Request: fold
Amino acid sequence: MTTATKQNHIGRKISRIRELRGMKQEVLADALGISQQAISKIEQSPEIEDDKLEQIANVLGVSKEAIENFSEDKLIYNIQNNYEGSNKGALSVSVSNFNCTFNPIDKLLEALEENKKLYERLLKAEQNKIEYLEKLLNK
Reply:
């Protein structure tokens, strides 16, 4: 088998994309209204009809062209570039721009102090009520 034939094997590309999406053959089969065995046969086929490929692409959440042009090598290259930060895309920007502007422990201690003050005010209010009620009873 030549490299060109191996790279253009649409069935294998569908299988790999399905696996990367975390989807089982049964789930893909149910969504397409066919059997799991039919999916297995499709994934073993080097070529697939355009309309069937379009349906499969829709279920997998990709375009037909994404399946046709899928390359494991390109995927690995893309992941490595994003991981290593050489690509200044959304992933690396969102990770590198995360700076906490306050100390969470300080915020926790502030909340604890506020709770203490509220409890003391509530206790004082209850004591005032008791004193008032005792005065009413003594009159």
Summary: The radius of gyration is 32 Å. The longest helix spans residues 104-138.
